Amino acid sequence: MRRLAHPAARLLGSARRRAGALAADAPRVFDEMPPAFPVPLVRARQVLGGTRGATFCTAVRGSEHDLGGGGAEPPRFTVVPGAAVSEAAARVCRVVSSQPEPRVASALDALGVALSPELVAEVLKNLSNAGMLALAFYRWAERQEGFRYTAEGFHNLIEALGKIKQFRLVWSLVESMRCRGLLSKGTFKLIVRRYARARKVKEAVETFEKMGSFGLKTELSDYNWLIDTLSKSKQVKKAHAIYKEMKRKGRFVPDLKTYTVLMEGWGHEKDLLMVKTVYQEMLDAGIRPDVVAYGMLISAFCKSGKCDEAIKVFREMEVSGCMPSPHVYCMLINGLGSEERLDEALKYFELFKASGFPMEVPTCNAVVGAYCRVAKFQHAFKMVDEMRDCKIGPNARTYDIILHHLIKFQKFEEAYDVFQRMGMDGCEPQLNTYTMMVGMFSSNERVDMALKVWKQMKDKGILPCMHMFSALINGLCFENRLEEACVYFQEMLDKGIRPPGQLFSNLKEALLEGGRISLAQEMASKLDMLRKTPLHG
After folding, report:
1. Which of 100, 176, 199, 489 has a 20 to 30 Å separation from 256 between CA atoms?
2. Which residues lie below 8 Å from residue 210, measured CB to CB, with a gap of 6+?
3. Out of 42-51, 184-193, 276-285, which region has the weakest mean confidence (pLDDT)?
């Protein structure tokens, strides 16, 4: 690559050592704690002061319309994937994402879209990576004819706000849902998951325990879900502690599911000792493994690079009379492929087909990945052709696997060609796809192409995530396009996305070394404001 004369090139060199390098340090944002009790009405009014009065209990008590009739079950809506709703949602998202928050309402008024509960839910779901914009849309929607409060709309807004860690605001929405009889275990599970992802384990467990105070009885299946959620959020030690406490108190007796999710959690951590410990405890409790439990053992060995041990479990499984599932074959193919043992991976694919299972996308994708890991891309494309012939794909994940490996092997032109062909297969690029492409171009001094892909994504109503912003801003800094870098940094802040610490350090140093001291101070001030100022309705 050509040597650049400006200081940003030196500052950001480490960020460009591999294609698609993305900042991964997710710093803490807005350290709100969940209140000990539901947010009181006065607090809810303060936080959501911009919403119409019917949001809160005093108005609900006098409104049978919102409750669907006196004492009746509140209306529930599910977004039905349909061209009309999806197209309208995409139009709304394009308008919302292209406007500063103060102008969102007037822009939506001018759009003239007919509002429905389905549309509100889908727009909020599509805005899940932009909590501030989701809130701005929701405030506008509340004032429109055709708006109705639904559990799905609340849940999608909670998900969007939870991603930017606006938990005080989330709890005020919980109070509003309580008033309307819309609360369910699903509501609390959403919040628990967001706390767990934010590494706020104490708050996650407290939220789970609050379900009882809202009249929602917890059962063994709920505890299994909590253990699973914490494990998948890289908090398996805490999950294991909950399991031990559950056994000690005798409140619930762990079942097969309990042991299975724990094995999966320790498998993700590549702690084979703990996987084997949990498995033995399961056997000691008189519980025989089923196909899922065997699968978790196989997965754990594969993830730890011990495919020979995984194969031993597979054979033991067959001897015990437990028929391997397609998922088990998929894990073995993935594991062997990741060790570049292509011939063995293909052997298990042939066994999969000989077992009488119909061809399915995940297993075929595992074969595609096995070919790609050893750079046999033509064979991977033949597998894609076979998927087409069987009318089972390919899907967006298939393309993401191919793109990931093309980029890894620095076949950038081929990657862009594959990216452009996705639509022809009826596979619209997803957020992850766009993230890879923007990262690829930004890391290889082709920011203009990254911006082209960015525009294509925005035109489809897909909103960028933190990783995309990081890749693009780093790329702009490297090419000394500092004003543009600041524009995208500002857009990032406007959406409520807290930038990774390293990203801001890179931008600040590039600005300072470029003599843009006032601009660096302005960006620092705006970031500080985001850190200190909670959202208000």
Report:
1. 199
2. 34, 188
3. 42-51
DSSP 250: T
**Among candidate residues 173, 178, 81, 91, the one with its CA nearest the CA of residue 131:** 173
Q: Mean pLDDT score of the chain, rounded to an integer?
A: 83
When pLDDT is averaged across residues 334-362 and rounded to a whole number, the result is 95
3 state DSSP class of 499: coil
The DSSP secondary-structure symbol of 144 reads: S
Q: How far apart are CA 251 and CA 226, in angstroms?
A: 15
> What tens digit of pLDDT does each residue of 132-185 get?
889 999 999 999 988 999 999 999 999 999 998 999 999 999 999 999 999 999
Tokens at residue 249, please? 């108190």
Residue 356, token pair as written in the block: 């009488």
- Beta carbons of 388 and 421 less than 8 angstroms apart: no
H or E element: which one contains 284? helix 272-284
Q: Which residue has the higher pLDDT, 80 or 289?
A: 289
Mean pLDDT score, 207-233: 94
The pLDDT, as a whole number, for residue 129 is: 87
Whole-number Å distance between alpha carbons of 367 and 345: 7
pLDDT of residue 13: 41
DSSP 533: -
Beta carbons within 10 angstroms of residue 268's beta carbon = 16
Phi, psi of 458 (to 5 degrees): -65, -35
The residue among 211, 299, 223 whose CA lies nearest residue 263 is 299
Cite the DSSP H helix spans in 422-500. 431-442, 447-459, 466-478, 482-494
pTM greater than 0.90: no
The count of C-alpha atoms lying within 13 angstroms of the C-alpha of 58, restricted to the half-sphere facing its C-beta, is 7
Residues 6+ apart with CB under 8 A from 350: none
Instruction: Say if residue 45 is exposed, middle or buried (CB neighbours under 10 Å; 0-12, 13-18, 19+).
Output: middle
Q: What is the length of the chain?
A: 537
* Strand boundaries in 85-221, DSSP class E: none
Three-class DSSP category at 522 = helix
Query: Rounded to an integer, what distance in angstroms lies between the CA atom of residue 439 and that of residue 433?
Result: 10
Place of tokens 């931008």: 507
Return the ∠ at Cα 121 (arms to 117 and 122), rounded to 5°: 120
In contact, 93 and 461? CB cutoff 8 Å: yes
